[in-house]
Amino acid sequence: MKAITPGRPASRARIAELAYRIGIWLKAIDGLIELVTGVLLWVAPSVLRAALAPIVSTDADDRFIRHLVATAAGRLDTGIAAGAPQIIIIFLLSHGIIKLVLAYCLIRGYHWVYPYAIGVLGLFALYQIYAVIRSPSIGSIIFLLLDLVIVALIWREARLVRAR
């Protein structure tokens, strides 16, 4: 048998495949965080407020970390956690469930889900663009760019599957 030497195209393909897999797992983790946050806001908002209080109330020097935590928890601060409006709870629960279902289907390789994943995650990215325009921050921009990269990687994967 002839040994296959990895050339640039094969190496790029492996990197793109690895990035795709990592991106999907990140979406699953993101969905799980949103789901858990939504459930906590629904049934025990004081638990979430207590968990976030040490992080949200840190010094101004830690703004980036504080912003990342608040974004990962659905852009919550102590005021929202104290009495979350129903729309935020519904938003977090629905986003979390949708992301978990999409991530599960993508991890399992269900090809029929690619167009839905691109569409739904694309709509989420459009909302993030609106949020960045309304209230720009480095953390929001980073999360938006990561989501756009994940959408592009899903699109790439869908094209590869169609080509096979």
Short description:
With 164 residues, this protein is an all-alpha fold.
Question: What characteristics describe this protein?
Answer:
membrane, 164 residues, mainly alpha, DUF2127, Putative membrane protein, 7 helices, 81% helix
Task: Provide structural commentary.
- This protein is 81% helix and 0% strand.
- It has 164 residues and is mainly α.
- The mean pLDDT is 80.
- It has one domain (15-163).
- The protein has helices at residues 8-43, 45-56, 63-72, 78-82, 86-108, 114-134, 138-163.
- The chain crosses the membrane at residues 24-44, 87-106, 113-131, 137-155.
- InterPro entries: DUF2127.
Give me the number of helical elements: 7
Radius of gyration: 18 Å
Whole-number count of domains: 1
Most strands sheet: none
Mean pLDDT across the residues is: 80
For the record, give the distance between the C-alpha atoms at the N and C termini, rounded to a whole number.
Answer: 24 Å
Number of strands: 0
- Assign an overall shape: globular
Q: Please indicate the percent range of residues in DSSP E strands (runs of 2 or more).
A: under 5%
SSE string, helices as H and strands as E: HHHHHHH
User: Residue ranges: pLDDT <50 for 5 or more in a row?
Assistant: none
Measured as a percent range, the helix fraction is over 70%
- Structural class by sheet pairing and helices: mainly alpha
Protein name: Putative membrane protein
Organism: Glaciibacter psychrotolerans
Transmembrane segments: 24-44, 87-106, 113-131, 137-155
Keywords: Membrane, Transmembrane, Transmembrane helix
